């Protein structure tokens, strides 16, 4: 198959659109999850809290305003077909230009500092946190997932001993959930990476957040573990926005990868109730 040649400039307007859409429009999957959670919530205050989140999401979309003031770090995930060949300026440069335009034209808060110790704001929310993956085909699928500090700061990683197995994974996730309490702004989604190396595991946990709420892992072992962890989290009593109640998590998504014989890596990444993402394919 001949290569499909794309100029990297094509990603700029796409990412600009995705930034603004993600920040202002919670997708139908998230809004339906809110409505379902509101029906299931047993606490009066919890129900009121979820109803406010529903109204906030509807208002943000209608008025094209950010659904949360923390418009996050711009996580950009690109699935690039192996038959795509690039020309033009460096791809990373164009990704950042798309992010820059999206945050500036969308009047969105700029939250990135150029150096983690010197703490000087870049004033355009670049650079993006860019993840690329080579896949089959000749298309490019781009997902923008703005990641706010409240949820991102609560993530955790641990290398368990292999003998700790499934119970060890469950125990670690519940330990993290109880420790962070309401800080990740529940009801949230929990992304869990199991296996790989430390870096691979963390990326899997992040990417797991993209999966639609209600869609289980294709492997029955992990699908069952997702349901078990979800039930356990929703029995902690943390509740919506940490105010107490039944619905602490909207869903739990696990991705896994082969790992070394000596290790059982586990990463936990939270996505707050402002579960923002938007995707487009070129």
From TrEMBL:
Keyword list, A-Z: 4Fe-4S, Iron, Iron-sulfur, Lyase, Metal-binding
GO molecular function: 4 iron, 4 sulfur cluster binding; lyase activity; metal ion binding
UniProt entry tagged with the keyword DNA-binding: no
Limits of the Fe-S hydro-lyase tartrate dehydratase alpha-type catalytic domain: 15-279
Family matches, as PANTHER family: FUMARATE HYDRATASE-RELATED (PTHR30389), L(+)-TARTRATE DEHYDRATASE SUBUNIT ALPHA-RELATED (PTHR30389:SF17)
Record-stated family: Belongs to the class-I fumarase family.
Protein name per Swiss-Prot or TrEMBL: Fumarase, class I alpha subunit
Organism for this UniProt entry: Pelosinus propionicus DSM 13327
């Amino acid at each position: 198959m001949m290569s499909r040649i794309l100029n990297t400039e094509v990603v700029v307007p796409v990412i600009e659109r995705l930034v603004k859409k993600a920040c202002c429009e919670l997708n139908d999957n998230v809004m339906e999850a809110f409505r379902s959670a509101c029906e299931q919530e047993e606490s009066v205050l919890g129900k009121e809290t979820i109803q406010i989140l529903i109204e906030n999401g509807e208002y943000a979309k209608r008025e094209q305003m950010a659904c949360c003031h923390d418009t996050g770090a711009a996580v950009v995930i690109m699935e690039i077909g192996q038959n795509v060949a690039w020309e033009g300026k460096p791809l990373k440069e164009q990704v950042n230009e798309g992010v820059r335009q999206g945050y500036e034209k969308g009047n969105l808060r700029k939250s990135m500092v150029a150096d983690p110790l010197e703490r000087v704001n870049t004033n355009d929310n670049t650079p993006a946190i860019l993840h690329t993956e080579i896949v089959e085909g000749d298309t490019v699928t781009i997902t923008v997932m703005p990641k706010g500090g409240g949820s991102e700061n609560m993530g955790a990683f641990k290398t368990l001993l292999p003998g700790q197995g499934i119970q060890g994974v469950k125990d670690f996730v519940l330990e993290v959930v109880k420790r962070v309490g309401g800080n990740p702004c529940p009801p949230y989604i929990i992304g869990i990476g199991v296996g790989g190396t430390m870096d691979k595991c963390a990326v899997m946990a992040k990417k797991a957040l993209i999966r639609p709420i209600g869609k289980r892992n294709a492997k029955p072992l992990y699908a069952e573990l997702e349901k078990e962890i979800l039930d356990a989290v929703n029995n902690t009593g943390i509740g919506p926005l940490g105010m107490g109640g039944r619905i602490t998590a909207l869903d739990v998504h696990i991705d896994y990868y082969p790992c070394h014989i000596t290790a059982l890596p586990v990463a936990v990444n939270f996505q707050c109730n402002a579960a923002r993402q938007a995707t487009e394919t070129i």
